[in-house]
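Schema walkthrough. Field components (list of strings):
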Amino acid sequence: MRGRPERGRQPRQREGADPDLAAVHAAQLEPGAFDVLYRRYLDRVYAYAFYQLGDHHDAEDATERTFMAALAALPSFSDRGSSFRAWLFRIAHNTVANARRSRFRRRAQPLPEGFERPAPDADPAGLVARADELREVLGALSELPDERRQVVILRFVDGLSAAEIGLVLERSPGAVRVLLHR
Amino acid sequence: MTTRSTPERLDEAVDSLLAGDRPMVDAELRPLLDVSVRLADALRPVPAGRAFEQSLARRLAGEGDGLLRRAARELGRPGRLLAAGALSSAAVGVTVTAYAVWRSTRRAPAVPQRLLGR
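Field assembly_structure (string):
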């Protein structure tokens, strides 16, 4: 099993070039090659789901559904009009929207209690500070209107461009820039 | 020369910021960029747990194997593909015949020429 690429925010891709295309074509021929795309995007899809749902368990569930759906739909993916990552985040967006609707029906409001999975040698004071900080961020995000929250997360957490966010949210790049500017 | 709007200039500055640079901006954009810097700092990556990563990798590998097996089964039974093709052709034939019959019943009955000549 291959290792995960470097964690954290990843460099943005240049407009017009889809760096995932070779891996996508490989996975379309041999589903086992999907592992490369999975490792590349796991943390970003997970972070998107976590900042949207505010709960690790719900984020894991949404992440799993996203990748299973992406693997099943991969044979029909075409690079015309969309990059792979915009396509993947569109699936994540729909999955998270379903999770939010389902949560609303349950009328549950889980704000996270334990945010981080501490490393064995983690500094407890640092973990508490990070948990407080995350709680504040999630509180602030939850007060944003839905579409603006989506734009902020996709832009600052996942590093998607305005054009890619437009594909995910079915808005024009200009409309996305205006939402970000407000 | 075209003047770019404030949202466009802010978007470009955020691009630089996310790429790890410190973009130079004018006084109008400065407060907006300050907010962006705070957002980028607060919204740090939240990595998935290691156990979850490995368990989902196993599930995806199993699902991928399933897809391959299903494809191999279909390729290994060409008879099923032939039967599906024959059924499709038959369905098209029935539809075209039904349409032709329906069209013929809507036409005014023509008087045969041989009868007119008599």
